[in-house]
Amino acid sequence: MASPFKKIASLTIPLLIGIGLIYYQYTSLTPEQLENIKLYFKNADYSYVFLSLCIAIVGYWARAYRWKYSLNHLGYNTKVYNNFFAVGVAYLVNLTIPRSGEVTRAVLLKKYEKVPFAKGFGTIVAERVVDLIIFLLFVFIAFVFQFDTISDFIFRNISPSKLIFIGIIAFVMGIVFLFIWFRSNWKIVNTLKEKFAGLIEGMTSILIMKNRWKYLFFSFFIWFSYLMMFYVCIFAIQETSDISFSIVIMGFIFGSVAIGFTNGGIGAFPISIQTVLLLYGINKGAGAALGWIIWTSQTLLTIILGLISYLLLHFFNKDK
């Protein structure tokens, strides 16, 4: 009985949060700003949006191609087009329940390439570890280049006494976490330890694989394509076309986090882009319009490419 409830909750809660964020953004904008957003949409240069979609497809391909290296390491020589279609379907499924696409990828790989689910899923987990490390590298670079703006924002909105209080709370929580992690025998803690051990094992397998440098190259290339996909869209709107590349990275980071926060970033992605750009003097209308243009175009691509991938999987594997 708990399982159906969990599935419904994992689908509806992020969706409701996204709808709530859309309502919040809509009510926080003045009628004039809403009218400006319509004008930004009308006057946007969609050639840059099209270029962004082309880059996104290259990113899909790079993820599919990288996957073959970890699968080859396990002794499976899969077809790249099947990898690509599985990635396309997985992205589509992620629009429903966040991160459920990873399971879908492993299931499709088992069905069409006869790779055991546990092994296929293990390669995907390893990918997520590498992706997380690269994403944290982006975060570090962005915070180094934008330290003055970020620190000014923090100290302007949070008093020093509150920062000290937050620091003390974080320190105490860290001590409690470490104590529970190393001393507790709770079932949930043991489960987390097993998953963490699996992540470490996945990372270790990458370090010893034959084509590890190619794997790492494609890993960085994937994230480079994601960043470029975001970057070229700023030229679609005149008011955002001259922002610096370091600001683009900040928007990219917060947008990436927002995508995992709700179903495909619905509501969360546009408002995160609006908020970040507002810190750098870009008006709410332009920031909101850019966020919605990027989110809408990428979501449509995900849906269309996901459906096509699902159909082509069956077409190219009729005998399976």
Please tell me about this protein's structure.
- With about 325 residues, the chain is mainly alpha-helical.
- The chain has a domain at about 45-225 and about 300-315.
- Helices cover about 80% and strands about 0% of the residues.
- It is built from 13 helices and no strands.
- The chain has helices at about 1-30, 30-45, 45-75, 80-95, 100-115, 115-145, 145-155, 160-185, 185-210, 210-230, 245-260, 270-280, 285-315.
- Helix 3 (about 45-75) crosses helix 4 (about 80-95), helix 5 packs across helix 6 (about 115-145) and helix 6 (about 115-145) crosses helix 9 (about 185-210).
- About 30% of the residues are buried.
- The model has no long low-confidence stretch (mean pLDDT about 85).
Write the topology of this structure.
Blueprint: H1 2-28, H2 31-43, H3 46-73, H4 80-94, H5 101-113, H6 117-145, H7 147-157, H8 160-183, H9 187-208, H10 212-231, H11 245-261, H12 268-279, H13 284-316
Keywords: Cell membrane, Membrane, Transmembrane, Transmembrane helix
Main location: membrane
Transmembrane segments: 7-26, 46-62, 129-147, 163-182, 215-237, 243-261, 289-313
Structure summary:
The chain has 320 residues and is mainly alpha-helical. It has 13 helices and no strands. The protein has a domain at 45-226 and 301-316.
- So what's the oligomer here? single chain
Averaged pLDDT? 84
Strand content: under 5%
- Which H/E pattern describes the elements? HHHHHHHHHHHHH
Q: In which range does the helix fraction lie?
A: over 70%
Strand count: 0
Shape: globular
Subcellular location: Cell membrane
Protein name: YbhN family protein
InterPro entries: L-PG_synthase/AglD
Keywords: Cell membrane, Membrane, Transmembrane, Transmembrane helix
